Each structure stands twice: as C-alpha cells, then as structure tokens.
Amino acid sequence: VHKDVTDRLEHINPSLAAQARVVLDINKSERHIRGGLATREKYQHRLAICSKENS
C-alpha cells in the first residue's frame, strides 16, 4: 500500500499524491511519540496490575 501511495499515485493523480504525502510525513514525524506513549501505557498497566495483586 505504501508503494502505491508514494510512487504509483503520483503518476495517476499528482494532487492526491501531494495530499497523501502530507499525511504520511505528519505520521512519520509523530510515530516516535505514539510509540513512547504506548510503552508508558504498557508499564502503567503492569504497575496497576501488580499493585492490585499486592493489596
């Protein structure tokens, strides 16, 4: 799908390809933040489970 959106769409519909590129670039710039939040949530969930077991 990524190949279609980045390469092939440019030949089919350049304006739509430009819009898709903007979305892909935003996603790429924010993915490290989402990964960090997911890791934080994972460990907070584990901590909550451990706290319940010890109570």
Determine Rg (CA atoms, Å): 19 Å
Which class of secondary structure composition applies to the elements? mainly alpha
> Number of helix segments?
2
The residue fraction in helices comes out at over 70%
Overall number of structural domains: 1
Outline the biggest β-sheet.
none
Percent in strands: under 5%
Order of helices and strands, N to C? Answer: HH
Mean pLDDT: 90
Distance between the termini: 48 Å
Note the overall shape.
rod-shaped
Question: Could you state the oligomeric state of the chains shown?
Answer: single chain
Number of DSSP strand runs: 0
Sequence stretches where pLDDT stays below 50 over 5 or more residues: none
Task: Please describe what this structure looks like.
With 55 residues, this protein is an all-alpha fold. The model has no long low-confidence stretch (mean pLDDT 90). It is built from two helices and no strands. The protein is rod-shaped. It has one domain. The protein has helices spanning 2-12, 14-54.
